[in-house]
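Researcher: We're teaching a course module on how sequence relates to structure. For the next exercise, students receive a sequence and then see the predicted structure as tokens, so they can try to spot secondary structure elements on their own. Here is the exercise chain.
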Amino acid sequence: MEQLDADKLAAVLESESRGVLIDFWSPWCGPCRALKPHLAKLADEREKTWRFVAVNTEAHPEVAEDYGVTALPTLVFLRAGEELSRLAGAALPSTIDAKLDELA
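Model: And here is the predicted structure for the students to work with:
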């Protein structure tokens, strides 16, 4: 999954025709680390309709602040730069999968 800063994220959101899922995470966050392999699997399965990217909130706290992230992990689902939904805190892979289906 691509690790992005504010500028790269803005470029992705401007150019991407698929939905974009942003994973806000931090290296010290256990649930964030546990979720990574599941997100990687979903990214492979859903690559035709969703682009998965990640923002390290330790390295880029301003991006987390811009998106109002107050819990980790937080997953933000966007399409055409518009936020469709978000999941905050530890989420089951099945919950994420269901959310992707709902927003398709």
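Model: If you want an answer key for the exercise: The chain has a mean pLDDT of 96. Residues 2-103 form a domain with the Glutaredoxin fold (CATH 3.40.30.10).
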